[in-house]
Amino acid sequence: MPEEQYVVELDREICMGSGVCVSYAAGTFAMGSDAAAEVTTPIVTDVSDVEVAASGCPTGAITVTRRTVGSGKQ
Known about the structure:
Ferredoxins are iron-sulfur proteins that transfer electrons in a wide variety of metabolic reactions. This protein is of the alpha+beta class.
């Protein structure tokens, strides 16, 4: 059975380090030593908190892309 996964990416060049993403999705994001956020879990299956973090990001640095794995073809 196919499984939905989501790829989480963060453009650190435009991240301003507000920490909004960490507040909403601490299991996916962390603050780096340079005060910009980092993605700690780049593949997630539960995207609800990550979508909230992405929509709350003040610079729009977060993208979430859906992919399906396990199509049954071998």
